[in-house]
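pinging the channel bc i need a second pair of eyes. not urgent but kinda urgent?? the chain im working w is below, pasted from the shared doc
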Amino acid sequence: MNLPLQGYFSMLLTASVLGALCAAFAGSAFEKYLRYLASLICILLVLAPFRSFDATALFQTDVESPAVSLPDGLSLKERAGAQAEKEICAWISQCLSEQTGITPAEVRIDIDWTADEPVIRSVAVRLPPEFADRAEEAAAWIETTCGVPGNVTVE
């Protein structure tokens, strides 16, 4: 059993037993006062754990994540953001290749992380020379699919 919990229950049991003993050995004139005092002490002991209870924690909806620094110096949020950027770039590259037949050499995105949720501001795509004549098509696909302006350059 947990030591603080064990101490709590032993204190409650001791107070109950002492209250009963005092009431048993007291004269009839003080018996009701001693029972009242013993009952009051027991009630206070039962309620004691709740005096440090913080009810505002139950209604707290906006929880801040702790700033955790990882071994490479990046915070957890920065690392998650970098991973998300890599996955989005890979997704854009794959979709552009599958839907238009244009295989980009590199895809970069500009994400605004200051808002409540990340917002993609722009997508930059670098195409190999064999797709130079399809740069406008790639830019139109990016704008249609991603909803942001596409900056397409050719190597």
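so The helical segments are 3-25, 31-47, 76-100, 135-146. and Residues 67 and 77 are 8 Å apart (CA to CA). — does that match what u expected or am i reading it wrong
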